[in-house]
C-alpha cells in the first residue's frame, strides 16, 4: 500500500450542514454521510469563503479569499496563473482528475487538473448557449418561482449527479483493475441539493408530512436589517405560504437523501476494492441553504444556514474516528489539509491551515478560531443586485463571536455561544462596543471596499464585450455536460 494516501475531495452544492443525521437532524436519512463521519471527524464550525458558488469554489481551489482571487460573483473568471490544489497535487506526482461540477468560467476548464469527466452543465463562456430547465424554467436561481414550482418530479441536476457518481465508480474500478501502486487524486463535484427544489416521488414521499417547519421563521414585516429587508423584497419573499414552505423543505430533504445515496455508490466501491483505509476523503459543500430559516431561502447571507458548510474528513489509517470538533475553521483549511496529507507543496499564497494537527488535538491552544467569508455583487445583475449598486458584505467569525459587515449599512453582531440561532443582534449594545470594534478591524484588514468596487466595475465593463462576443460567435465548449429540458418537470398531480 502506498505511504501517501489516495485523495478524494467531494463538494456538493448548497448543502445545509444541519440536514444530515451526523449533523443532528433526526428526520433526514443520510446513512452514507453518517458512516463517513463515523470513520472520521466532523468539523462543526466550518465556513465557506463566500456564500455563492463561483467565488466559494475558487477559494476552495486556491486557498485564497475572494478579494485575493478577485473572484466575487458567478460571472468572474479565476485567473489561470493562480495555482490550485490540483497543481500542487500534480507537482507531488499525483494525477489530479476532476469529475462533475466545479463551475469554472472561461476557456480554462481544468485549472491544474489533468483530466476532467462529465463537466458542468453551463457553457464555458458567459453569453453562450443558455441553460434550458424546461418546465422548471427560472427555478435554478434565487427567485420565488423556485418555491412555487417545488415538489416531486424530476430535477435535471439529479440526472447530472447520477452520471457523476457512475463515472467515479468506473474510475475507481479501473484504478483497482490496473492494480496501480500510485495513489489517485479525485475531485468530485455534485449539483445536489441545489434548487430546483424537485425530488423524485419516492424521495419526496419519504418525508411527506415529516419535515418540521423552520425553527425561526421571520415574517417580512419583522425584518429589521435594511440589507436583508432589501434582499427579501428583491427576491419576492414578502409572502411565502405555509404550503410552499412545507413543499419546498420536503423536496430539499429528498434531494439530500438522493445525494447521500449516490455518495454511497462511491464509498461502497472504495470499500469493495480495499481502498477506504488509505483514502483521505473530504466532504464539503460550496455553501449552505437557508430552507426558510428567518424567512430566507437559497444562500447569499452570513447566517449560519447559509455561510456554514458540512465538513467531514475521513482517513481511517491515520486520524481519529467518530469525533466532532467544534473549533472554528474555514473551507480553505480543507485545501491545506489535503496537501499536507499528500506531502504536496503548500500553495504559496494560501490562507489555509492544515487541520491534521487539530484533528489529533482538538484542544490545541495555538489554533486561532477564526474564519472569513465575503459576498459582493456586480452592477446590473438582476438576480443579485439593483441597477448600478454593488453590495459589499463580509463576515468574520472569531471564537464565539460573529460580525457581519455591510458597507454603508449597520453591521450585525452575534454571540453564537449564547445565541446560536442569531436572534439577538448586539451591534448597538454599548457593552459590546469593544468587541464590535475589534471584529470590524479584522474584517477591514486588507479588505478595501472602494478598491473592490473599482475592480468589480472593471470586470463588469469587460463583460459588455465578452458576452456579446460569445452570443455572436458561439465558441466551442469543452467538457460540457448538456442537460435535457425534458429532465426537469413536476409530476401531475402533486397531492398523491
Q: What's the SSE blueprint?
A:
Layout: E1 6-12, H1 31-38, E2 40-47, H2 53-62, H3 66-69, H4 85-91, E3 96-100, E4 115-117, H5 145-148, E5 151-154, H6 156-178, E6 185-189, E7 198-199, H7 201-205, H8 226-234, H9 242-272, E8 279-285, H10 304-307, E9 311-314, E10 323-330, H11 331-341, H12 356-360, E11 370-376, E12 392-398, E13 401-406, E14 412-415, H13 433-444, H14 449-473, E15 489-490
Parallel strand pairs: 1-6, 1-8, 2-10, 3-4, 3-6, 5-7
Antiparallel strand pairs: 2-9, 5-15, 8-9, 11-12, 12-13, 13-14
Task: Characterize this entry briefly.
32% of the residues lie in helices and 16% in strands. It has 14 helices and 15 strands. The mean pLDDT is 96.
Q: Could you give the distance between the termini?
A: 52 Å
CATH fourth-tier homologous superfamily: Alkaline Phosphatase, subunit A
Q: Determine the number of helices (DSSP H or I, runs of at least 4 residues).
A: 14
Largest beta sheet: what is the strand line-up? Answer: 4-3-6-1-8-9-2-10
Number of strands: 15
Indicate the percent of residues in helices.
25-40%
Tell me the β content: 15-25%
Shape: globular
| Reported CATH architecture | 3-Layer(aba) Sandwich
